[in-house]
Design goal:
Structural class: alpha/beta
Number of helices: 10
Radius of gyration: 22 Å
Order of helices and strands: EHEHHEEEHEEHHHHHH
Shape: elongated
């Protein structure tokens, strides 16, 4: 009986700029939006030379993110950028097979010369593949993996590979579920960042509500984030991106104030610019004064945000317990 392959997707892509190295530069910008997914595999004519070029482009992107961090006073963005910079600086590029260097994140290989690494959700084709090489590749990829084809080879759909637009449509359907959940809780995501600037009062009110139903909210947030990661990069309008960011930030804060294992996974999508690292628009960069836990508890209690006040109190007590 023939083994059924996992459903994969393809994107036919051309670099936006001309000149030597433009494909590699575009590939690294594309990978930047998918770097938290898992491993990536690059098929190219000269693996070592392409690796060297790609690493240079990756370091350039890292410096762009460092400049973005230096230009903002937003605490959430600073944490997000710091996390991204650390991740980028520790990513390992390798021209050796996965069995020889299993700890790498990005592998470079000539077609037909390597086993596909585990958890490989991004494949970049810079050199044409033969039919048997395509079959071998698809048989080894996990479900929802994306093949980015710079050679524009025909026959992907005939091989059962669906266009990336299907992944993007799944993001839209997941967002409809998110919007329905939030509206059912009396939260309008568009009102959290009117005009692109966060409204602290609305964000705090939403946080107070969502902390009372954190488990279903975080489960939904995790599902949406996964759909978003698999479909990236995405070109969406500024308003929708602002709503995605507001949702990711809420999920990050709910998780931080909930008694569950904490990770940075929601900050990995927060304020990510899939138009390829355009500098953030000038906004409100006023330094927000820091307040103690006691001051925050008093402020939220006075405003009637009792669930939020209690969560901050419990978190402060937990931190004291961890210290002593």
């Amino acid at each position: 009986m023939q083994t059924r392959m996992a459903q994969c997707y393809f994107e036919l892509r051309r670099p936006g700029a001309r000149g030597d190295g433009s494909i590699v530069a575009d590939m690294m910008r594309h990978l930047h939006t998918r770097q938290y997914l898992g491993c990536a595999l690059v098929f190219c004519a000269q693996s070592q030379a392409t690796l060297s070029n790609a690493r240079k482009q990756w370091l350039k992107l890292s410096r762009v993110v460092q400049k973005q961090r230096a230009q903002t006073l937003n605490a959430d963005k600073i944490v997000k950028y710091t996390h991204t910079i650390a991740h980028m600086q520790h990513m390992v590029f390798s021209a050796r097979p996965p069995l020889e260097e299993p700890g790498a994140e990005v592998y470079f290989a000539v077609p037909g010369s390597t086993v596909v690494p585990l958890k490989c959700w991004s494949v970049y084709v810079l050199e044409p593949l033969q039919a048997d090489q395509i079959d071998s590749l698809l048989a080894q990829l996990p479900g929802n993996a994306l093949v980015v084809d710079y050679c524009h080879m025909p026959g992907w759909e005939q091989a059962g590979v669906l266009p990336k637009t299907e992944l993007e449509a799944h993001v839209t359907s997941q967002w409809q579920r998110v919007d329905q959940f939030l509206r059912g809780s009396g939260i309008d995501c568009a009102q959290l960042t009117p005009g692109g600037n966060p409204n602290a009062e609305n964000m705090d009110n939403a946080l107070d509500t969502l902390l009372g139903e954190s488990e279903p909210f975080l489960q939904l947030a995790d599902q949406f984030q996964r759909a978003l990661e698999l479909a990236r990069p995405l070109k969406i309008n500024r308003q929708l991106r602002s709503e995605y960011d507001s949702f990711a930030l809420l999920a990050h804060r709910v998780q931080a104030l909930s008694p569950i294992a904490f990770s940075q996974r929601f900050l990995e999508t927060y304020n990510e610019d899939d138009s390829f690292l355009a500098y953030e628009q000038a906004g409100d960069l006023r330094q927000v004064g820091l307040e103690t836990a006691a001051q925050a508890i008093a402020r939220h209690t006075a405003a009637g945000r009792l669930v939020l006040a209690r969560a901050i109190r419990l978190r402060a007590q937990q931190r004291l317990h961890d210290v002593y």
